[in-house]
Amino acid sequence: METYLETERLALRRFTADDADLLIELDSDPAVMRYLSGGEPTAPEIIRELHLPRILAGYEKWGGDLGLFAAHERTGGTFIGWFLLRPEAEGPLDEVELGYRLRRAAWGKGYATEGSRALLGKAFSELGVRVVWAETMSVNHGSRTVMEKLGMTLAGTLPTPPDMATVEGAELGGVRYEIAKERWERR
Ligand SMILES: CC(C)(COP(=O)(O)OP(=O)(O)OC[C@H]1O[C@@H](n2cnc3c(N)ncnc32)[C@H](O)[C@@H]1OP(=O)(O)O)[C@@H](O)C(=O)NCCC(=O)NCCS
Which PROSITE patterns does the record match to this protein (predicted)? Predict the structure, then answer.
């Protein structure tokens, strides 16, 4: 396993074509999917035929530096979920999105903050990134708290996408947080 990034407790690596089952299991927990699909699992064939091929294609496109990364506990190797650091499909490479989706068993241990903090550090110090942004539903307090702990600030509100209209809290829309390199370095 080639490590992309290590933190005190986590190791992040690139996904491989053999990882569909990890992604399928992660997306099968209604609690994990609560603010993403309203709790509906992602269909295994969508993961196998669409999501995983897109993740792998992203490594080709961005030279393995950006994309979605599998996270494991360094002690014991348990898969805890994924983090993403990636530009928009046709967007500039120096403006990237941060995201995370962790297995329920891994919540409440500071892992989302720890992994994200290391990713921001890498983005700004090694990858030439200028701005990192993240979006979530207004009611996703866990996700918002992670963003705030990272020093990201609220940059605006967003309409709920039509395909998320039935998700709990959709009427309150979404939020976008951002942090620029200068602010990260001054924190
Ligand atoms: C959101 C998520 C990534 C948080 O992961 P986590 O590893 O538990 O987060 P951390 O332990 O780093 O917590 C950071 C802070 O958020 C707080 N927090 C976490 N979940 C919370 C919740 N549901 N409500 C309120 N605060 C919460 C923690 O208490 C902690 O604050 P503290 O250090 O002051 O105690 C995780 O719950 C998850 O993967 N959820 C499902 C997928 C998802 O919604 N992803 C985000 C989509 S935009």
Answer: GNAT
- Please determine, looking at this structure, whether the domain spanning 3-186 carries the CATH number 3.40.1190.10: no
How far, in Å, CA of 41 to CA of 33, rounded? 7
Asked if 70 and 19 touch (Cβ cutoff 8 Å), the reply is yes
User: What DSSP string describes 133-171?
Assistant: EEEEETT-HHHHHHHHHTT-EEEEEEPPPGGGTTSTTGG
Determine the Cα–Cα distance for residues 64 and 5; give it in Å rounded to an integer: 12
Beta strand 95-102 pairing with 79-86: antiparallel
Quote the CA–CA distance of 38 and 20 in Å, as a whole number.
Answer: 22
Q: How many residues does the chain have?
A: 187
Ligand 1, atom 26: nearest CA belongs to which residue?
A: 142
Q: How far apart are CA 52 and CA 16, in angstroms?
A: 8
Q: Does residue 187 sit in helix, strand or coil? A: coil
Q: How many CB atoms lie within 10 A of CB 109?
A: 13
Residue ranges covered by each domain of the chain: 3-186
Q: What residues line ligand 1, using a CB cutoff of 6 Å? A: 32, 35, 100-102, 107-113, 136, 140-143, 145-146, 149
Tell me the per-residue pLDDT of 87-135, one tens digit each, with 9 for 90 and over: 999 999 999 999 999 999 999 999 999 999 999 999 999 999 999 999 9
